[in-house]
Amino acid sequence: MVRRTRFNDSDCPVARSVDAIGDWWSLLIVRDAFDGSRRFGEFQRSLGVAKNILTTRLRVLVAGGILDVVPASDGSSYHEYVLTPKGKDLFPVIVALRQWGEGHFFEPDEPHSEMIDRRRGQPLRMLEIRSADGRLLDPDDTAVNKVTR
Amino acid sequence: MVRRTRFNDSDCPVARSVDAIGDWWSLLIVRDAFDGSRRFGEFQRSLGVAKNILTTRLRVLVAGGILDVVPASDGSSYHEYVLTPKGKDLFPVIVALRQWGEGHFFEPDEPHSEMIDRRRGQPLRMLEIRSADGRLLDPDDTAVNKVTR
DNA sequence: TTACTTTGGTTGCAACATGCTACCAGAACG
DNA sequence: CGTTCTGGTAGCATGTTGCAACCAAAGTAA
């Protein structure tokens, strides 16, 4: 099971996020959900994960409000796992990980799956970090306000 | 140690990214590095992680080209861990996780650390996913081209 | 309606990773 | 110099993962 958030870190949103999805499989399950997987077996075949592990991960994601269990869309009496709004809000996280991976783990000519804009069939624009008034920022232009207790 | 990438997933950039940083501590170490932590002891106190765990995580991150070991900036003979360019490219991932956490794990009035724009002291703009030609996209506007082998 | 397959699990066990505590060497510090 | 600080190792208990075997309910074809 995923670890509990540590006390001295609980006021950092990154820590709470990592607590919810910070293990190997959870993020890949969410990625697959964005790619259209809905059924237990789809996730299992796509990921190659052991079934007991998948069972517990799906349960954690459902308990965490990231996936929802709904009746199967094909009319059978099985059920399916779909992203909740909270789960869909992970989209920028997945895109960020995808772009980082594309940039650093593949040779320029190496084939890899890629995310495209449906309308034009083009790859997405790189993510940009901007200030409230629209300036492009890099890490050095930012700071973290630590909460004092 | 972090798990090896599975064969049936190795062509997905998300999988390779998760393989590199997809465990509890690695991402929090990177976050701390963005926040200015450089020394072993700083990371340890900030995270509350056992020293042997921190040792192996730092080694994995250095081996993965995300952190670099450099001589200490204070002239002592100790050394420090700093983000490489590859590590700095994780900035959007951290920001995405931070924004997701802020939006879903805190009450509106609950205090938490926040990332601000140094120049104006304002929180950052929310990340936006855009097509190559600049249209705002949501998950349903995108698709993933799977590589066929 | 009966036999077979698919789906979505559960269970038990072995191996591995994690975390705690104690210890330790070299550098800094007074 | 003697003490403290820093950055680790080592050993051991516990927790988590992964594999393989098993299983029941639902679907399917005759």
UniProtKB/TrEMBL annotation, chains A, B:
Q: Name one GO molecular function term.
A: DNA binding
Limits of the HTH hxlR-type domain: 12-109
Q: PROSITE patterns in the record, alphabetically?
A: HTH_HXLR
Q: Which UniProt keywords apply?
A: DNA-binding, Transcription, Transcription regulation
PANTHER family linked: TRANSCRIPTIONAL REGULATOR, MARR FAMILY (PTHR33204), TRANSCRIPTIONAL REGULATORY PROTEIN (PTHR33204:SF18)
Membrane among the record's keywords?
A: no
What is the organism of origin for this protein? Streptosporangium subroseum
Q: Which SUPFAM superfamilies match?
A: Winged helix' DNA-binding domain
Q: What is the protein's given name? A: Transcriptional regulator, HxlR family
